[in-house]
Write a structure and sequence with these properties.
The protein is built from 19 helices and 16 strands. It is an alpha+beta fold. The protein has a five-stranded mixed sheet. A hairpin with a 5-residue loop joins β10 and β11. This is 2-oxoadipate dioxygenase/decarboxylase.
Length: 477
């Protein structure tokens, strides 16, 4: 009998969910096939540059999933399940005000946080919790009935939770228990064949299709499973050529001539799926729901707080130009805004303090410089300019609220309803930490640790003290 470490359990979990979801949603298999083709062709065309943000093996194997739960208790339980796979909460996302449609959820993402663990298997799950106590969406009576419905269901059996706690505590499991953990965890995210209460589901759907998908059924399930692709625009074209209807546009940054930053996402539209309903007269019969879709992503460079501030301002500027008639196609307007404000090379992005990078000493350049840096106080910028230090981009491992909400919105048939005269319930990263039972990590802090560790190593190699780049505040031209 052998011992399976957390990363091995995580890799098996990602594969198990992928196989299960491919059976439930066959179009997902097409998406994976096309993603693999795109990555293969991109690597052939671009060579080594194609792997600047991760090896082709990692990129091709990479997935992120998305699930939804209904209460703080369910969120704390799912945190225990994911801890068994070395996946921890990172980032807080409030989707309630990120879309025009009614999306009453707050979210975090469970993923590895150590760079070595990410390199072994970066599986992550974007996990949303219904804000069932937000009066903008649910009045007092509906809040009460939602709580009762959610509290009367069990998403994760006690045996699974206990085995997950054991795996987390021991950093892995022996074979037999590992197999049982994978079996139960995968089953917890399968689409249930329990009859759906038609009247209850429709009552929630009138407010939000997302709320109905969470609080109108007796289980949770994978909403989408997302492969990573190196050229999302090429994938979009190839999927359309295969007759698969995609959402109207790619979410996130536009395609442009400079470095890829943050995250670009798109999906095929939600499909009609057969479900069984229980009607008000007590009869049971067939029906259809459209809640699950096929998402794909292209990851870019992680931005610093300064870079993210600039990104947010560019999004606002793009919205302004569109609303004031300075263009009609979002991607074209965004490309112009990006070209006016973002550096066109990784080196310039690093020098401006806009992106996170790790740094290494260029030994050949150091030898050619013929200088001794020992005992000197230097700036990182002058070392980069002199090419004594080389910047290597850190891949963005997280998510964008507006993009996530945009994907949700693009797959909804109705905008739902909300009462903005009411005061919304407060949620933030501190509240989410209390809910999941451990500190939700700040993504910026994780990237900064990687960057600072590399700078410390450069200092040691050069025997110098290095002043880092400024990574906060940005102005829009």
């Amino acid at each position: 009998m052998s011992f399976q470490q957390l990363w091995q359990l995580r890799a098996r979990f990602a594969l198990s969910l992928s196989e299960m979801y491919g059976t439930e949603v066959p179009a997902y298999n097409t998406l994976v096939d096309v993603s693999t083709e795109v990555n293969r062709d991109f690597l052939k065309a671009e060579g080594a540059d194609a792997e600047r943000l991760g090896s082709i093996e990692r990129v091709t194997a990479e997935r992120h999933g998305a699930i939804r739960v209904g209460s703080p208790e369910e969120m704390s339980q799912v945190a225990r399940v994911f801890a068994a796979f070395g996946m921890y909460p990172v980032g807080f996302y409030d989707l309630r005000d990120a879309a025009k449609s009614s999306v009453p959820v707050v979210s975090t993402a469970f993923r590895p946080i150590d760079k070595e663990e990410l390199a072994k298997n970066p599986f992550r799950v974007f996990t949303s919790m219904l804000a069932a106590d937000d009066p903008r969406f649910f009045d007092a009576d509906l809040q009460k009935r939602l709580r009762e419905f959610i509290n009367n269901r069990t998403l994760f059996p006690q045996e699974l939770l206990e085995l997950a706690d054991k795996a987390a505590a021991n950093k892995g499991l022996e074979d037999a228990e590992a197999d049982r953990l994978l079996e139960m965890a995968t089953a917890s995210f399968e689409l249930s064949d329990d009859p759906v209460d038609y009247a209850w589901y429709k009552e929630l759907e009138a407010i939000s299709a997302v709320a109905a998908d969470i609080g109108g059924v007796t289980s949770t399930h994978i909403n989408h499973l997302t492969p990573r692709v190196l050229d999302i625009d090429d994938l979009y074209r190839r999927m359309e050529e295969r007759g698969i209807t995609m959402i109207d546009e790619v979410q996130g940054p536009p395609a442009w001539e400079g470095p890829d930053v943050l995250l670009r996402q798109t999906s095929f539209r939600a499909l009609d799926e057969k479900r069984v309903f229980r009607f008000e007269d007590g009869t049971v019969g067939p029906g259809e729901l459209r809640v699950r879709f096929g998402e794909v992503e292209q990851r870019g460079i992680a931005l610093t707080p300064k870079g993210r501030d600039l990104y947010d301002k560019m999004v606002v500027e793009t919205d302004y130009r569109l609303s004031s008639g300075q263009g009609s196609v979002r991607t074209e307007v965004a490309q112009q805004v990006w070209a006016e404000n973002l550096p066109r090379t990784e080196k310039e992005l690093a020098l401006a303090g806009l992106g996170f990078f790790t740094y290494t000493v260029n030994q050949q350049a150091l030898a050619n410089a013929g200088e001794t840096y020992s005992g000197r106080r230097l700036t990182l910028a002058e070392l980069i300019e002199a090419e004594v230090v080389t910047a290597h981009p850190i891949v963005y491992e997280d998510f964008l609220p507006r993009s996530a909400a945009g994907i949700f919105q693009s797959n909804l048939t109705d905008k739902g309803s909300r009462d903005d005269a009411q005061q919304g319930t407060d949620y933030d990263i501190t509240v989410m930490s209390e809910i999941v039972g451990r500190e939700v990590a700040d993504p910026y802090a994780l990237y900064e640790v990687q960057q600072n560790e590399s700078i410390a190593l450069v200092e040691k190699q050069l025997g110098a003290t290095i002043t880092p780049l400024e990574t906060r505040n940005a102005a829009l031209t």
